[in-house]
Design a protein that fits this description.
Elements lengths: L4 H9 L3 H13 L13 H9 L3 H8 L3 H8 L7 H12 L1 H8 L1
Helix pairs in contact: 3-6, 4-5, 6-7
Length: about 100
């Protein structure tokens, strides 16, 4: 249950923010940290990054809408057969895609 405004003010009045920050800095310097999370990127995003284009540019290059590309990158939809072929080329030979479509 969330705290009321009065409870928040009472809690905050007792805090020493400077001491909390100093403690956090000491913990970081000592190598103490919380969990580290790694986000995996989709193969579509990887292909786009290798070609070095924005979402809008890459979508135009593939002949799809930016929204469709976002759906592919976020795993909501799968590319069609032709798009999959272009994505494979983009991942393996981004220079070829840049050369052909520039």
């Amino acid at each position: 249950m969330p705290l009321t405004e009065k409870e928040l003010l009472e809690r905050d009045a007792k805090r020493d923010i400077g001491a909390e920050l100093l403690q956090s800095i000491r913990q970081m310097k000592a190598g103490n940290r919380g969990r580290v999370h790694y986000a995996s990127i989709s193969s579509v995003t990887e292909a786009r990054h290798k070609v070095g284009l924005s979402q809008a540019q890459f979508a135009a290059l593939l002949g799809v809408s930016k929204r469709t590309l976002q759906d592919w990158e976020q795993g909501r939809r799968e590319p069609s057969g032709a798009a999959k072929s272009l994505l494979k080329i983009a991942k393996k030979r981004p220079d070829v895609l840049r050369e052909i479509f520039s």
